[in-house]
Specification:
It holds the Pfam family LmeA. This is DUF2993 domain-containing protein. The chain has one domain. It is about 25% helix and about 45% strand. It is built from four helices and 13 strands. Strands 5, 6, 7, 8, 9, 10 and 11 form a seven-stranded antiparallel sheet that branches. The protein has a six-stranded antiparallel sheet with strand order 1-2-3-4-13-12.
Length: about 250
């Protein structure tokens, strides 16, 4: 009986030591992965990396982690110098993505830990209205003789719509206040597109294609980390919420 008690105590102690060693190891791995990810992606701050599943050490032996969660507070995504629409000029070279969180599953890594790739990944992020406004018209555009207009504001229009505010000058007189229109937002490939559901009333008869030079615009985003891609978008309180997804996503290397 005494021997059994001693064996039980030893087992508990060893189990406790294993848990401690496991947690120390996973903490070290998370810090190392975060530092490498920051360097590889040129991030301004160190991302959060959380390795899920227990025990960690047995996953390491198997050469694959069940799940890894990555959080990046601010990410400057490339836009490939995309244009925002007919006559709109060049879009910003970068666009700020806020609170990018990616859940990666089936993360296999090389023997020397120099690279890690996830079989699949899903995640969420936000593009603020202030950032998205940069993709709209920064300068007034002639939409008819004596009529100029430009987008001056974006906000949540409710029910998944974006409220687009258009400021217009007609025959030298600026309208008393911006005219608003509800717009739909969608993903098409690697591009976020905003299209007005109806045209704003600027007080004069205008051709639809001319007005849409102002109200409709797009922002290409193809520089997300690890090769993840846009999936869905929806207007929200502070900006456009986006879902991302990917396969064979590089976490490190």
């Amino acid at each position: 009986m005494r021997a059994l008690r001693i064996l039980l105590i030893v087992t508990i102690v060893l189990g406790g030591l294993f848990v401690i060693a496991d947690r120390v190891a996973v903490g070290f791995a998370e810090d190392e992965a975060a530092d490498r990810l920051r360097t590889n992606e040129g991030l301004s701050s160190t991302p959060d990396v959380s390795i899920k599943g227990f025990p960690f050490l047995t996953q390491v032996v198997g050469g694959e982690l069940d799940e890894v969660e990555v959080g990046i507070k601010d990410y400057d995504a490339d836009t490939s110098g995309a244009t925002t629409g007919a006559g709109s000029g060049k879009a910003p070279d970068k666009i700020r993505i806020d609170n990018l969180t990616a859940h990666m599953r089936g993360v296999a890594f090389s023997g020397d830990y120099s690279s890690a790739k996830a079989a699949s990944a899903t995640g969420t992020a936000t593009i603020s209205y202030a950032e998205l406004l940069k993709a709209a018209k920064a300068e007034p555009v002639d939409v008819a003789t004596g009529v100029t207009a430009q987008v001056v504001g974006l906000s949540d229009g409710g029910n998944g719509k974006i409220k687009v505010e258009v400021e217009a000058t007609v025959l030298g007189r600026k309208l008393p206040q911006p005219v608003s229109v509800l717009s739909s937002v969608r993903v098409k490939g690697d591009t976020v597109e905003i299209q007005a559901d109806s045209l704003p009333n600027l007080g004069v008869q205008l051709a639809e294609d001319k007005v849409r030079l102002i109200t409709d615009f797009q922002q290409k985003i193809d520089g997300l980390p690890g090769g993840i891609e846009l999936d869905k978008v929806a207007a929200a309180d502070k900006g456009v919420d986006i879902d991302v997804k990917g396969s064979d996503v590089s976490l490190v290397g």
